[in-house]
Amino acid sequence: MTKLSKGGMDRRQFLSTTAAAALLASVSMPKIAFGAEKTVKIGFLAPLTGEVAAWGKPGLDGCHIWADWINADGGVKVGDEMLKVEFVPYDDEYDPSKARAGAVKLIKEEDVKFIMMLGGDPWPGASQVAEREEMLVSTLLPSDLTPDTEMLLAPCEVHPIYNVTGVEWLAENKPDLKTAVICAQDDALGKPSVATYLAAFEAAGIEVLDEPIFFDPATTDFAPIMSKMLALKPDIICLDTCYADYVHPLTEQAFQQGYKGQMISCTADFYQKMVEKTSKEFMEGFIFQFPDFDDPKLNEPHVNFKKPNDFYQEYLKRYGAGEWSAVSWEYASIMDLWADAATKAGTTEPTDVLAAMKEGGVGKHAFGEADWWGEKLFGINNALVGLWPVVAIQDGKAKIQDFKSIPDWWDQHSDLLIKHMKALGQMYYQRT
Amino acid sequence: MTAELFLQTVVNATYAASYMALIAVGFVLIFGVMGVINFAHGELYMAGAYTVVALYADMGFPFFLAVVVGLIFVGCLGLVMEVGLFRPLRDNPLGGLIASIGFLLILQTVAMMGFGVRMENVPPSTQDKIVFLDGAVLTYQRLYVILAAVGLLSALWIFLRKSKFGWSLRACAQDREAAVLQGISINQTARIAMFIGAGLAGVAGALTAPLVSPTPFMGHSVIVTAFIIIIVGGIGSLEGAVLVAILYGFVHTFVTTMYDGTLANIVGLLLMLAVLIVKPTGLFGAKERA
Fold first, then answer.
1. Contact assignment for B119 to A225 by CB distance below 8 Å
2. What does the mean pLDDT of chain B come to?
3. Leucine-binding protein domain: from which residue to which, for each copy (chain A) (predicted)?
4. B220 in A contact zone (CB under 8 Å)
5. Where do the domains of chain A lie, and which CATH numbers do they carry?
């Protein structure tokens, strides 16, 4: 008799126990053994660590809520099947070479059907792989779009074009503000945003007092930059699309150096921390473009994002009150569009989903009905553009002031935007 | 440039020079005594900042207690590096450098696992500030960094010049073999150098935590500047590191204010290039070693 272990079971006992365990497992887990759920994998290729992680990681967190809710309802209906959704994250660290490696892994090894990216600097790394494999990819930055990027969509965030709405609202509601200064980090996010703010200020009749200040992304001490801006005595300080790591110290510096005027920024992620470090009075009226999703105005009928207030509460419950950022809802809203398109197409194949998504030239953007747009600016109509909220901090809390139409602004001032984009080398045919 | 902007720029430059001096002097002390380029020095600075995040911002201990703990904790991290990494690799010129890169990654990962990748919010210990006649502003939080730099670096200078341990450190920096022949313990001097060098980086990180919003990657940027400072100052020269930190802080801040930060970085690198061409050992390289 063969003993498997000293004082333990013999071979016959071992075999019978193993067989019983296997039978029990097959009976107790019928779904796994006899009817495994079908799953579609979605790639999440964005910075999850590093300086830009604030625009990747919170989006993945939001996607987990989206997937849990969809999967709890049975999944996404595709043809005759209900497909559960699984996100496969890959940290590109905002690095093109890592984005390329991530794209290869997600497509070749994970067999994902759609990839969501932040875009910007990493996109060139992933673009060749995505194009070769005909993979549908989304970016939050339509400045990645060119006539050649047919499989790349900007279905949620029309960065930086929506920044015009903040300036337009400011000009309408605070007409006494006549001068501005702008600073931004010198990179693929900062430059097109500066061009947009320059156009928006010019359209609003607000004078920009000096050349925009482009600072090195490695900057750690923002006191000299703020000193330089304050020396011009502006009515408005514009922080462009600075990363949260820059918006916070710049705002603190403005406070510490005694500034009392208007501030405007594309984002104010984790603004509660800025309120803590400065004061409610100083932050009152700070304009930016990204609402908290507990805002009652998001329940207006034109808003397509599903259950925004519940989504926000769930997000805070899972990840904490201070973790909500500009992108927490964005990737989830892109998934709404993708799921609708996959259902309409009856397949998850990227080219079919793309066609279904762009059918009729219109789409259900998170904030309302929108057009597939962008040919004049990006060389391709792959950006979904419609309404965008203008947000201001009031009594320490972000509140939507209004929804403004980007296409309406564009119809009146497209020449200004193209002029400033050209001047900064940001038109699609100027970008390398 | 108006008088107000000029004075504000002087204030900004004094702060920049102070915190860079704290970091660069620790860096150069470790290299001078041990012959090791400690690539993890920026992460020691980060560890000091996270000590304040944990003790002051999260647990509510007094700010200055957290700063003192930061100094001691990071100094002890330096001791761990000396005993665990640098001592076994003392005869391998590249070994210490590679080991420090590995330790850098470990510290970053520990910070990421412990605190996450987001930037941390450290409230200032005070909102008080000094407003000069021309309107220039110096916050107390920045003043603390300036005072710490003056106080700690003066104390270090006295320690090196007047104490027995200081003499042994300088002897090891000048000629390690001769120091050993005089009965000086290399292990003991290495421990002292690592504790002081790491502690200075730690206190810089701790004091600046409310000013910079700590992240696990905050060490990257300071290490590059520290390299420029010690190369221009003369590798191994404490006086050189202090003087060049002041020079670099003023040049960089004024160029940033008058032109832009990218040009300021270029000027810093050109400064380094010019010194290397004219005096390859650095401004204080050969004669004024620690």
1. no
2. 89
3. 39-375
4. yes
5. 39-159+299-388 (3.40.50.2300), 163-298+390-423 (3.40.50.2300)
